Amino acid sequence: xxxxxxxxxxxxxxxxxxxxxxxxxxxxxxxxxxxxxxxxxxxxxxxxxxxxxxxxxxxxxxxxxxxxxxxxxxxxxxxxxxxxxxxxxxxxxxxxxxxxxxxxxxxxxxxxxxxxxxxxxxxxxxxxxxxxxxxxxxxxxxxxxxxxxxxxxxxxxxxxxxxxxxxxxxxxxxxxxxxxxxxxxxxxxxxxxxxxxxxxxxxxxxxxx
Length: 209
What we know:
Elements: E1 2-5, H1 10-21, E2 27-30, H2 41-44, E3 54-56, E4 62-64, H3 66-76, H4 87-104, H5 110-118, H6 123-144, H7 160-174, H8 182-192, H9 195-198
Parallel strand pairs: 1-2
Antiparallel strand pairs: 1-3, 3-4
Helix pairs in contact: 1-3, 1-7, 4-6, 4-7, 6-7, 7-8
């Protein structure tokens, strides 16, 4: 398998974690978002959205969207599971993952921030937008996992919620968000103690400066 991504992309970060948790070997192909390589015809042939990640399978098929990729990996390589067996708990895990991947990250990613800049917003306004968006999303996540207990978001097993949370906290620090969520920070520390998470961090990727 080959993962097309970018070291600082939180969506790519999620997929790196999932691949590592599953113990799967993969190559990385680097798409330099700051240089616009995601808009090149060769990459658009893989992902018409012009976004990372894109996971190229051994048979040449290409999967896109980080949550879809993670669930594909969970279907094809079920151990260790990324989702609980209980249907209600599975829905709770997906809810936290989607708060981050659908409602928080997309409205503070590079594509949106560049559009705000194109509308002549000052850089401090762009940063404030990102901070507010991230803060609101993490506020919701903190409430959604309240009372769950355990080392991770939902108990003592890593789930898709943790795979999404850790990269979003990385993003929060990038934008100078006040990390006012002790429980989320504790979960992050527990996750980063695992090799699968530690090896996926942006600064350890070959394309990191």
